[in-house]
Design a protein that fits this description.
Layout lengths: L3 E3 H5 L11 H17 L4 H8 L3 H9 L6 H11 L2 E3 L3
Parallel strand pairs: 1-2
Length: 88
């Protein structure tokens, strides 16, 4: 299953500015990761291993940690089979 996540819709209503500091927007992305994980019957540990990160880090991202790096977000998306694209 593929889910297309437009970061412009998640992080900001403006295509030119992504509000990385907004906890609400990070939570939305974390919710999308959680939903995709649950739909695939995966545990947080399984996704973390696929993404090459610790389970604690993955859990923080899923809870909406505002300090998650883009590289980690992309690794998680890849592990879940989700396309995460930045607007151009």
């Amino acid at each position: 299953m593929k889910i297309l996540v437009k970061l412009s819709q998640i992080y900001s209503s403006c295509y030119n500015t992504l509000d990385m500091d907004s906890p609400e927007n990070k939570k939305t992305l974390g919710d999308k990761f959680r939903i995709a994980r649950e739909e695939q019957n995966l545990t947080q540990l399984q996704v973390a291993k696929k993404a090459g990160i610790s389970v604690n880090y993955y859990a923080r991202v899923e809870r909406g940690d505002p300090d998650a790096r883009w590289s980690v977000i992309n690794s998680i998306a890849k592990a879940l089979g989700i396309n995460v694209k930045l607007p151009i």
